[in-house]
Amino acid sequence: MGLISFTNKGVYCKQGDFYIDPWRPVNLAVTTHGHSDHVKWGSNAYLCHELTSPILKQRLGELNIETLPYGKEISINGVKISLFPAGHVIGSAQVRLEYKGEVCVVSGDYKVTDDGISTAFEPVKCNTFVSESTFGLPIYKWQPQQLILDQIREWISGNQDKQKTSVLVAYSLGKAQRLVAGLAGYRPVYVHNSIANLNDAFKTAGVNLPETIRVTAETSKEELQKGIVIVPPALAEGRWIKTLSNAATGVCSGWMQVRAGRRWRSADAGFALSDHADWPGLLSAIKATEAEKVFVTHGYSATFAKYLNEIGIEAEEVKTQYGNEDDDEAFH
Question: What PANTHER family is this protein classified in (predicted)?
């Protein structure tokens, strides 16, 4: 019998009697990261990385949380559990399970390129690997982060020449912090309340983030026009943005890689900045695990699993409820 099964509550380890990223309340939820599609309120206890804990508390309130640093091993009912960096967002973790010589790794969401702010992805050798496939098509291949940040700076500079306010649309957890770090010192950075709250939670946990300015009712439109405004996807077409001085919106998402994505909603620009692995990244990560069996979850799972089987890696598509992080549009 394998170490994990896929149930109507989530990924279940029978030997340890716990779930990984369950989408319904359970006794013990081992949590890979703080995006809302991977952690739900209502479980009796949670186990996560040290830097994910303040995010869970900030988003879900007081919870019964136990934390682990990367690489430290604990045992639950004889199952050894340890966490390894997933590179997805700050504190994101792959969950390594070991029982009677069998090793399974549940990766959650991940990216293999180092974004300079999340702990870089670390491949873990295993018998069984559970992989996402959000961008599991050959068309998805990311440009270097620095190149995209340069493109964003150039766009902001052009907006200021035209007296437009630059509004970047990005996830509150993950993408926003990458932008804050990558654009620090270029222009003052103004952030929506939800992003400011998460930044504060990270700083309290000891993460060194550049200073940002929280947007309030008193923040003048003239101030914002001289700086950079970062908002979550839910506000992308909100009434508030329409009140700004000639707002230009730039969407930061892997979906912007394809031309159709650039016309998403009414955005003025699209930047293919993603917190997920691209096609080459998925393949390199899976090959590095040397796994004998791969379960492919959310994204282009059927296509990606078929390709893995064609190249000699046994793979199976699994239906889950992951893939809509932050309760916003599919905006990775």
Answer: BLL1145 PROTEIN, CLEAVAGE AND POLYADENYLATION SPECIFICITY FACTOR FAMILY MEMBER
Rounded CA gap, 84 and 56, in Å?
A: 19
> What is the per-residue pLDDT for 171?
94
Model confidence pTM above 0.90? yes
- Distance between the two ends of the chain, CA-based, in angstroms? 34
Domain 5-139+276-327: give its CATH superfamily: Ribonuclease Z/Hydroxyacylglutathione hydrolase-like (3.60.15.10)
**Total count of residues recorded for the chain:** 332
Closest CA to 275 of 173, 127, 131: 173
Count other Cβ atoms within 10 Å, centred on residue 319: 9
pLDDT at 237 (0 to 100): 72
pLDDT tens-digit map of 283-300: 999 999 999 999 999 999
Low-confidence ranges of the chain (pLDDT < 70): 1, 259-266, 324-332
State the Cα–Cα distance between residues 23 and 237, nearest whole angstrom. 29
Distance between CA 144 and CA 206 in Å, rounded?
27
> Are 5-139+276-327 and 145-271 equal in CATH topology?
no
Tokens of 134: 């959000």
At the topology level, CATH places domain 145-271 in: Rossmann fold (3.40.50)
Instruction: Report the amino acid identity of residue 188.
Output: P
Which helix (H) or strand (E) is 242 found in, with range? helix 239-242
pLDDT in tens, 190-212: 999 999 999 999 998 899 999 99
DSSP collapsed to 3 states, 268-280: CEEECCCCCCCHH
The domain ranges of the chain are 5-139+276-327, 145-271
